[in-house]
Specification:
The chain is mostly helical and 72 residues long. The protein has one domain. It is 47% helix and 0% strand. It is elongated, with a radius of gyration of 18 Å.
């Protein structure tokens, strides 16, 4: 099987390495993350991103209030 090199930030590498088992390749861990459908595995993903989450929450609230709706 051929391979392709990609560039990722060091913090992303450390996160992937933390998820990876000894018998698992990085390709396998990335593939499992991409195809993951169990919502409970997403719990806590934004816990260290409080500022980002607050921005997302604010934008979602504005969207629900219809501020993003286009006039027809």
């Amino acid at each position: 099987m051929s391979s392709i090199n990609i560039s990722i930030n060091e913090d992303v590498y450390k996160m992937l390495k933390g998820l990876k088992r000894e018998d698992e390749s990085f390709s396998e861990i990335i593939k499992s993350l991409i195809s993951e459908k169990e919502i409970s595995k997403c719990y806590g993903l934004l816990s260290d991103k409080k500022e980002d989450f607050e921005i997302i929450e604010k934008e979602a609230s504005a969207a629900r209030k219809g501020k993003w709706r286009r006039s027809i």
